[in-house]
Amino acid sequence: MGETAKKQKLVVVGNGMAPGRALEHLFELAPDAYDVTIFNAEPRVNYDRIMLSPVLSGEKEFEEIIIHGDGWYIKHGITLYKGHKIVGIDREGKTVTSDAGTTVPYDKLLIATGSVPFVLPVPGNGLPGVLTYRDLDDVNAMLLAAQSRARAIVIGGGLLGLEAAAGLKSRGMDVTVLHIMPTLMERQLDPAAGYLLEQAVEQRGIRVMTKASTKEIVGTRKVEGVVLADGTTLIADLVVMAAGIRPNGTLAREAGLAVNRGIVTDAGMHTSDPDIFAIGECAEVGGQCYGLVAPLYEMARVVAAQLAGNADAAFVHSDTPTKLKVTGINLFSVGDLSEGEDRQEIVLRDAAAGVYKRLVLKDDRIIGTVLYGETSDGPWFHDLTKKRTDISQMRDTLIFGQSYQGGAPLDPMAAVAALPDDAEICGCNGVCKGKITGAITGKGLTSLDAVRANTKASASCGTCTGLVEQLLSLTLGDAYNPAAVTPMCSCTDLGHDDVRRLIKAKKLKSIPAVMQELEWKTSCGCAKCRPALNYYLVADWPDEYADDYQSRFINERVHANIQKDGTYSVVPRMWGGMTSSKELRAIADVVDKFHIPAVKVTGGQRIDMLGIKKEDLPAVWADLGRAGFVSGQAYAKGLRTVKTCVGSDWCRFGTQDSTGLGIRIEKFMWGSWTPAKVKMAVSGCPRNCAEATCKDVGIICVDSGFEIHFAGAAGLDIRGTEVLGLVKSEDEALEHVVALTQMYREQARYLERIYKWAKRIGVDEIRRQIMNDATKRKAYFDRFVFSQTFAQVDPWSERVSGLDKHEFRPMASVGYQEAAE
Amino acid sequence: MSDWTLIGTINDIPRRGARCVVTPQGKIAVFRTQKDQVFAIDDHCPHKGGPLSQGIVHGAAVTCPLHNWAICLETGKALGADEGSVKTIEIRLDGERILARLEHVAMAAE
Fold first, then answer.
1. ipTM (interface pTM)
2. Is B68 on the interface with A (CB under 8 A)?
3. Sign of dihedral through CA atoms A210, A215, A220, A223?
4. CB-based contacts of A640: which residues, under 8 Å, 6+ apart?
5. pTM (two decimals)
6. pLDDT by residue (tens digit) across A130-140?
7. Tens of pLDDT along A54-71?
8. Does the N-terminal or the C-terminal CB of chain A have fewer CB atoms within 10 Å?
9. Would an 8 Å CB–CB cutoff place A751 in contact with chain B?
């Protein structure tokens, strides 16, 4: 109790990346020093603003870029006001007041109001359809506009503008970039690299106009076009202003604090009022404002130390490398690139390979680096700059990079091994090699995620992920199993998740398109990746993708199960395990007619006929079809069986019509392809005679409704199911089961059963999306229903009608006539 | 003795697919690759006798449907860590016609 009384009140205005990081440091240094209150003008938690571009391009979801979920605020006892904008600071009374009228007292105040986008002062800049690119709301507005597939103009050819342009293009818009300077990204790149970048951008189908000065934005009710200073008029349905940012010092200025370009602070991040600090893009320290994340995180570190009582903590300026987050364009730039009498440069050009490297030297030291196309030596060059290493000894080969300095070329692993402990690995978070390897050994870390959680390395923009993995693998040797990045197969370095994401993001709709765009290393894949790709494309583009039968395993190609002797087995569907004398008679007749050697009752409540010759399959199906049978898909990575018990129809304990519900689910879902087989069951009471609690999806009927289970297993692994939740009606049960299956279809890796997928992404997350989020559930349900319109065709009757005839007949029989003579 | 025997046309086989030819000496699997190369091998995996004609064809190789051995269509040898090989049959293309060098005619005439 005494502790709480001593706690000081810290109020934070703004909930971006800098204050989020500052609080993390503070809770480490002085966990009990402050009661923290945060006011966030955006109605959401703290997210990684650097990753908005991948959200715009569709390569990431918003959920993936959240830094602090609601749980983090609760865990640290933080009061978070979402959607509250602070409108006044009373420095005398030491309180802040929000636009919703909330007033909160502070002992220490941290201002982190960030920046505002610079809006060109031209006529028409307020028209509907003119957007800036700053936060998630902007991204959402752009995504909405992109749905119309219309024309977009991005004003500004800097980092942000190009990322916005690439994102809009990948969303299907017709995009033009207007840039006022002669070359793109002129602040970070020299003209040669800017030119290469312009070519690469145009190759992506984005028009670039340089020296284009915007005079006016025109339109009557909404934006219709842009007029340039030279009189050119361009048609546009969307205009994105990405011409720069301005530190947001309005609140501080109104409170009477010293504000220059940004809020003026000393090296300890104090403003002109010693109880008020400012960090982030709004702060001006040492006469400079910052926009890249590394210096902002440095400010966060300093302010946390100050708040924890270390008055010596001070911000030190350092150059930060620039990287462009557009998939497929590699560039790296840092330092001073201007020419001068006292400077020399080393340039390497390979136009055909699209490589350009330039080092600016002064007094035998590197002071600036531009790399385009091949950027892996960037951190090394940057390290030489920071250490002011004399490069005269290696000048002849310097431009070829680190691997050429030791004589024989080094492999990438050896290059990482050769880095000194203080070499910076993660530029965003300022994490050096020694800290990462120290954490790996000291804390026994074995995965990328664990390193991210413990050191922050590669946790922001992610471009150093490869380096961090190499460090894991160097430090742990064979003990490191990079599960998160296991490639699909030896044809690619991409893992299943990346491939699925890119299929959607790049709208890849055929196996050759995937292999081309994702740079497959083999000409036509292998028996591992082709069936996986075929499934992903079927699942993601049900109406557009033409199923590639030659990429399906034999069982799915001929719709029967191959046996060890090359014969096949056939299992017709028996809905919910119910059958009749007519069906049984038809099966008996087929068995006799085709001399089928074995008949067996399966574990899924139906009948298997084994030992059928491939040539006989169509005739067997024709006879079964006449009795009303369709394929039981016992061979498919798809819905197999729905086992049932007799339920309230017959059983004295039955609480609901489990048989009827099982049949209804099976009739709704048959024919759907899934990442791995899906087996279901419906039990009429908790005695559970249908064994629903070890199935992929199971339902236990109870008096009050239907308990939905999932993620069970009874094969190589044995696992009881998890409970998804309880619903009241059959309709709801069907909707939930279907939505769950669709979520699995969209997210799982090929051959990953539901229980493994659930373990990977978390049972709670699945429950949240299916049980608690009705909009999401309905959307999953609708997508499943849409896909079923293309999937529910009985493959047996198609083949009885002659489809794929070649599959079931030999091409030729030779030699017999002569033999008979 | 062996003879060039017409066994079909290239259009009878789907790209990245296979068809069987039945001979008194057993089944032969005839493959057509993505790049329209044609190969023939015994339809019998050296591992456990699986029907190679039913496998997935990738590049100039096929993966057996029973236990995923990958077999090189040119040499008949198992790829990767597995060891074993299957007999290859010489193939000649005459326009779209596929001719195979089969031994059965001489044997049958005996």
1. 0.90
2. yes
3. positive
4. A604, A632, A633, A634, A677, A678, A679
5. 0.57
6. 999 888 888 98
7. 888 888 888 888 888 888
8. N
9. no
